[in-house]
Structure formats: structure tokens, C-alpha cells
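Data deposition worksheet. Section B asks for the primary sequence of the deposited chain exactly as it was used as input, without tags or linkers unless they were present during the calculation. Section C holds the resulting structure in C-alpha cell form. Section D is free text for depositor observations; keep each observation to a single sentence. Incomplete worksheets are returned to the depositor.
Section A, Depositor: J.P.
Section B:
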Amino acid sequence: MRPGGPSLSSVSADSVSPVTYVIDLDALVPPPFLDAQIQRAGGELTASLDKIGVAIATSSDPAFASRVAKLRGVRTVTEDTMVQWVPQDTEPTMVELDDLVSVEPASVFGSLESFRPLQWAPDAVSAPAAWTAGAIGTGARVAIVDGGIRDTHIDIAPELDVAHSTSFVPGRPFNFDQRVSPATGVCGLTDTFWHGTHVAGIVAAPANNRGTVGIAPGATIIGVKVLHCGSGLFSWVIQGIYYAATPIAEGGAGADVINMSLGAAFDRQGRGAAALAVALGKATTYAYQRGVTVVAALGNNGFDFDHTNNLVFLPAMSPHVVAVAATGPLGFALGATDYDRPASYTNFGQSAVDFAAPGGDDVFEPAAEECTLPRLPSGVVTTNCWVFDLVIAPCRGSGTSNVTYCWADGTSMAAPAVSGVAALIIGKFGRLPPAQVIARLRASADDLGKPGNDDFYGGGRVNALRAVQ
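Section C:
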């Protein structure tokens, strides 16, 4: 299952009553003043992001936007937009961890996770060598700005800061998600995947000798739900970034790293999208200024952004965001060791890609061929060979399961690998400003493809060991 398909489009929220508006201010208007002005204009202020000059309001009055646009200090008033940031395609391939499995303590950190033999992605970025060197991300806080997180999963719960996890999706807690029914096209089925759970596990699944291990197994993860069924309003994403980047002492999550494995392509000339992109950019700039490294997936459309000038991919192309392309093997189960092959679907372009990381691929042929790989402490996993080229990580599962793992591919899986390496850097060297984290990522990345900045690898494929040396 590749979160992110060939077409990412926005859907107008004009069917919602009342309508939500994103208000961009050219000055830091005091919230009490703004609240009163919006009420007089026939609306309700639902959120005031006063540190970035953005407000969220709702109104059922068709004249509301034009009234607010005339207020002093208001730059734009834009109807919010519902976007399918993470398209939901097919049912994922899953594997359950036997509750009775018990593995003896590992002599090498992270080496005896039950599904470690199925995990090629940590090896692709030299993460095991970084762990051996003592870098596991302890102390780093990574916000997963995404969908719901399965907070009871055995490879999520130990690293999850429940107290500071939250949701900006009305009526939906951070630890809940659903999926669109293939039969009806309606969001409502209890998913067996949960995109945010998979992403969180790639970043920081602990080395507990069960399941899988994340790139930064000592890091703390914070669930910030901004999507449901893969969709979300621009305002939810903006608020999620703002909250994640705000220090705990000021009412935020206190993240060091924000991971956004979500994205959509927009027409650069589209009036509504352009205004919303400005507000989104204010949020990512705020995060950068608050010392937070922001990482985002660059998307799975196969676009060459060096020659697709009419499109912008958000939030990966927002200011101060690290944009990640994907790589993956072709035939891992049959012995393939080239994990740096550009994924067939990844968006690319020297102007767009900052780094590459393992995201997997699903083009191995013949598609029906089956392969078998070992699991620990004993037993095997048998499935289609192409599945092993994907990235395995925790997922929702069915019923009360807290031991389910799924394979998925996409830049959604590559971004958390970079976030994990950023967490290793912060765990090793302390809370560095994002410019220094990015500089270290760039200086330590493996320069693949043509020398220097490359279409598919940007500044290179991240290298965890070199990043912490």
C-alpha cells in the first residue's frame, strides 16, 4: 500500500456549514480585538495563532469573508480547503506478532527484533552502526503530524508522549482513525493500517526484542492528528505544525522534529491554494524560528519538479521544510542489496529534493511469485516477493490487536527515516537549531548519483552513522 497516489487534488469545503476561513494578517493583531471584529462580521473565531498572524474562523454568513477582508490588518480571507493529503488505495499486507514470542536480550542493540530480518531500511541508512556507537535518539522529541496513532501498540506505547499528543480534527481523538470503504467511497471503516502509526514506528519503534525497530529507537514521539481517512483541512495542518513547534511551557508539544508524511500538489496560480500556502508557510517558518527541524514527504506522483513549474507540492515545498524523496530495493527477498535505487513513483528534481531515504517500491516481477524470509527467534514469513521490498512497521491491525505490522511504500515512509536521523543528531549533540541539523544531515549524507545536488537524491541519501560522528 503506497500512501500517496498518482493524483492528489483538493476538495472545496463549501458544502460544510458553517464555512471555515483562514485569515492571514499582515500584523500581529491582539486576539481580543480580532475576536470582537470577527463576531461583528458575523463569524466566530475558533483559533488565533497569534505568533504567526493567522486566525481561523467560521461563519454561515455569505458576506462574512468580504466584511473581514476590509478590516485593518487583514491581508486575505480564504475559504478553507479539505485535501486528500494521504490517498487511501488498497488493503495493506499484514503480519501478526505471536504474543507468546520471547526473544533473549540481544548482544547487539536492535538486532533481535522479531521482524528485524525483514527490515532493510535501517541498514540502508547505517542506523545499526549508529546505535552501536551509542546514538539512539534519547531526549529528542518527534511530532508525527499525521493521522491517528495506535497508542496501545507494543512498538508505539513505550515511546509515546500521550500527555502532549492531541487532535485538531473535531470529534476525533489522536488515537483514532478510519479509512474509506472501497465499496461506498465513504470514510467510516475501522482501518487496519493507520498511516500515522506506521510513520511513528519507522521513526522510533523501541528496541524491545519484539516486532520492529525504528531509526531512532530512544526518541519520544508525539501524536498530532490533523488527518482523518487521509484527509484534512489546511487549517488543521497549520494548527498542528504551530502546536508541535510551540514549547511545552507555552502550551505546545515541545517538538524538536516535526515529521509530515503527507502532501498534495497544487496549481501555483490557484488563488485559494496560494493564499492557504502562505499561511502554511508562516507555520513552517515559525517552527524553524522556534528551533524545530521540519521534514516532509515529497510525494509519489513521479513528477519532475525541475520541469513542472506550474505545480507546487505542499508542505514539502513550504519554507524551511526538508523535502524527502524515496529509494528502495528490487528483490530484497531474493538477495538484492542495492537499497539506493530511486523508487519508481518518487517525485524528483534538483530544485525540490533535499535528501533521499528508504521508502520501498512495489514493482518487482512476477508479482505473484512468493518468497520466504526468517523471523526471530524462529519461524518464517511467506508472502509475495515484492512485498518484502516495502517498509515494514507497526500498524493498527484488527480488533484489539496491538501487535500488528504492515508493509507500505512511499515517500511517506522515507520522510520518517530522515526524521529519525535528525532525532539521532539531536539526541547526540543536543537541541541544535534546524540549520545545524540540516547542515549535519547534508555533510554526512552519501553522495549518490551525479556529484553534488542530484535529481533523485538531492544532497544525498542520509547516513545515520556519519551524522552522529
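Section D:
The chain has two domains: 10-80, 93-467.
Confidence is low (pLDDT under 50) at residues 3-16, 99-107.
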